[in-house]
Amino acid sequence: MPSCELCGGDDAPILRRRTRVTATIDAAFEIRCCAHCGLLFQSPRFAPQFYRAYYGQVYRHLLAQEQQPFDSHVEDQIARGEALLESLAQILPRPGRMLDLGCGAGGMMHAFRRRGWNVVGVDPDSLAAAHARDALGLTVQTMDAEEMRLAPGAFDLILIAGSLEHVHDIARVLAQCHKAGAEDSLLLLEAHGLGQAEYLGAIGHNHRRLLTANSLALAMLRHGWTPQFITDAPLSGPTRPGSTFALGRRTERLGPGPMEAAIGLGIRDTPEAMAAWLDRHGIG
Ligand SMILES: [Zn+2]
Description:
This protein has helices at 48-66, 70-87, 107-114, 126-134, 170-180, 193-200, 213-222, 257-264, 271-280, and strands at 14-16, 19-20, 26-27, 30-33, 40-43, 97-101, 118-123, 140-142, 155-161, 181-191, 209-210, 225-231, 244-250. By secondary structure, it is an alpha/beta fold.
C-alpha cells in the first residue's frame, strides 16, 4: 500500500480507478485517499525521469489541444497576476522579491514586475519558460522545482499558482520554498485541482494530488508555514473557477508536530467525505 506523501500514513482506500488523459483517453491510475489526513492522490507515481520528459515536451502539446491559443493564455496569466495584486493589496504593502514556482510563460511575473517587484521564475516546460525569457525579458530557470538552486532567504513572497498538483515531490518542493523564504516571508498557494477535475469530469493524469482547503493547511503546517487565510474566493479573477487559495507566513517550526496537532483538531479530510465531495462535483 502506498504511503501518503503529506502525513506518511499507509492506509489509503481507492476512490477512483482511472484518471483522464484527454477527453477520449483514460489511464489506469488509481486515486486514493489517505485515511489519516484525507489527501487525495494518484497511485502509483510516475518516475522522476518521466516527469522531466513529460513537462519538457508533452505537456505544452496537450495543453494546446484543450486550451486557448498561447497568446491569450499569456494575457490571461497577466490578468490573473493583476487581479491577485489587487486582492492582496492590504497584505502585500510594498514590492519585494518574488519567486513564481511553475511560472509557465511568465504572465503573472510580468504583472508583479510592473508593480515594482523583483521577480524570478522556475518552470520545467521549456517552451513556456523560453517565452517568459525571450518575449517578456524575465529571469526564468527551465527546471523541475525539486532541483531549484536558490539562495537561502532570497524571497519575500513565493507564489505557486496551480502548480503544486503537478510536481513530483511535494515535500521536497515545499522544503526548498522554506529554505528560499526570508524571515516573515509569505507563501501563496493556488490549488486548481477541483477546477481541472470539474472541467474534465474526472481527475486529470497530470494532477498527482488534489488539494483541498484542509490539505493546503496541512501541507503548510508540515513544511514551516502558518496559514493566514484559506479561501475559495476568486483572488485571481474569474477565469479559474474551482481554485482554492492559501496564504502562509514563514515560521521556524518544522516537522510533523504542527500538522499532527491540526489533524487532531479535525483539520483533515476523510475518504468518506472526499468520496461524497467527488460525487457532488460530478468527478468520475
Ligand atoms: Zn495523509
